[in-house]
Design goal:
- It is built from 16 helices and five strands.
- The chain has 337 residues and is of the alpha+beta class.
- The chain folds into two domains: 133 residues, no CATH class; 146 residues, no CATH class.
- Strands 1-2-3-5-4 form a five-stranded antiparallel β-sheet.
- Strand 1 and strand 2 form a beta hairpin.
- Helix 7 packs across helix 8 and helix 11 runs parallel beside helix 14.
- The longest helix has 17 residues.
- The protein is globular, with a radius of gyration of 23 Å.
Length: 337
Amino acid sequence: MPVQSKQSLGGVARAENLTAEVKSEIARTAARARWALPEERGILPEASSQGVLPIGDVTIDCYVLKDRRRLIHKRAMARALGLKSDGGNAFMKTLNGKTLGSKIPVELRKKIENHIVFKPLSGDPAHGYEASVLIDLCGALIDAEPDLLPNQKFLAKQAEIIIRAAAKVGIVALIDEATGFIEDKRREEYREIWQQFIREEAKKWEEPEFPDALFEIFYKTYGLKRINPDSTKHPKFFAKLIRKYIYQPLLNSNGAILELLDEKNPVVYANGGRRFKLWQFLTEEIGLPAVRAQIWQVVGIGKGSRNKAQLATRFYESFPEARDPRPEAIRDLFEDA
């Protein structure tokens, strides 16, 4: 047995003297740091794919970041709305106008004012927005149409064109197609590629890997009261929700990644339990960032959902390929609790 240094022995002793509350707070702090977005950690997000998305008579520069967020360039937002100048300043000036500025919802305005600075595949850092911001903005412009000035009416008209184009398959699917991020192939053909998401052995982390914000969404939409907000223990059926909302649609894999994880981490206990957590088999370079991106998309969907049925409806609108066509699976949508 190797001899431990005085420093390591001291560290072990200090850890043993920590209270349960302090240990819990340390674990939560570590989890928050792990789940922070790159820009929150002082790191410039980088694009892994980019392309041009045609909508009507205009083209939109779009990107997929390495953490799987889909972005639209700031100047492309202006161009999509038919503004004469395609610069980001024209975009902000128009939205901050006296008439239109009061029609933009507060939450949407916050997103517009806090653009994402990222690094494209080439060139200088750029400014962009998550793809959903364009759709939300178009909805706001359409709602504001009766109050727009005559020289602003074109904005509502162009917004309707964008909404109709995007509604057919969803803005995320459109960007995936434009960038070549995911091609239309059979799921089995990607199993070899998706192996890079999964490690051979489970990494034994003690800190909780899922952020508390996700569980808060489940508590809210399922109408459950959380007895102890500081506890990391949750109802057992939350595991089914995580499989449905996080692993099944992961990276448009339609369950292929989940199948690989189940192979690595099979059920071994009579109660249906597994030896490890599924996320412990994900690679830090690709697998975990993809899961984190999926989680925050679900959290975003859940924040606007009042109950479990609305959560499921909005989720499948964003991830239609994740829907299980079996009748019993559809019934389970309302019976998880």
